[in-house]
Amino acid sequence: MQLTLEKKWVELLENLPESGMGYQRVHIRLRDGRDVENAIVLNSEILQIPDDVAPFRPADIIAVGLEDQDRFHE
Amino acid sequence: MTTIGIHISLIEKLIDSPETGMGYQVLRVELEREIPRYVLVLNAEIAKEMLTEVTPLERVIEKQAQERVFKALQYTPERIHFRILSRSEAVSKGLGENRAERAGEQPACDANPELSNADERFLRYSAFQNDRRMNPDRSVKPGTYVTTRTDGMTHVKTGMDAVRRYALPNPKPAIYRFDLDPPTRIVIRRGTVEPAHGQPGGGVEVIFDSGAPAGTFRPPVFTMVPGT
Q: Any chain B CB within 8 A of the CB of A11?
């Protein structure tokens, strides 16, 4: 699944380091309590979700963190 | 691991001396009244590490010796007597070869920070023409990954070449090329792209740890063919 992040997350990710050229590995926390790991964000805006994750909407994201950092940004 | 920039007068001597291997020299360094020690030097300007194998008991002594040697390399080159080992000499002593090559093979995130070379140029490939790491003043955001101009121009002719060489997760061809020419030397980390996302990697990757100043990005964005 692929979706476009809301502006606040785009602005956050633009100012966080990349994991490789043009992408960031992230974990995200959803409103229903789920944490999604190993997601990839392209160009700070396009979120790619692993296939085994049940679908959700951009508005369901309540926190985002870089995979190699141990914290979420809300 | 300590990394230091070498005194300019020594850099000039090293540039005029042969390399031990591609991009590195192993120096046999002697300070007055001390035993010789071996130092790995990258690009004739960065002293990276002492190569002497030590036991745990010797570690403290060797750490102090490293401080003395590195300080001399940095500030008092006149105290230094050195010669550069040939490749066969370095290999026969168990120095340099493998460790130097390993230093160049690790991913950039595991490398030590260094300064870019004067007038060094870089490239960045993206599937997005509106690359968000580029700021309006043509500076580049901290933590951005790029490659060296040499690596890109030598190996990347199409967008799919970039996807493979830099192991990009986006399967769309990275057809947009951004030319980056920092007006000053900047802090970077260099490494080699590891295989990932089903791609082989193997390209040179560079992290702009503190970003790059205004005017670094030189438009226009070059558009390559997608390739296969």
A: no
The one-character DSSP state at B214 is T
B85 and B121 both lie in a single domain: no
Q: Do B175 and B129 share a structural domain?
A: yes
The b-or-e profile of B189-213 (16+ CB within 10 A means b, else e) is: bbbbbbebbebebbbbbbbbbebbe
Domain count within chain B = 2
Is the CB of A22 less than 8 angstroms away from the CB of B207? no
Domain coverage including residue B67: 3-92
pLDDT in tens, B204-223: 999 999 999 999 999 999 99
Q: What is the pTM of this model?
A: 0.64
Distance CA A2, CA B55 (A): 53
ipTM of the complex: 0.84
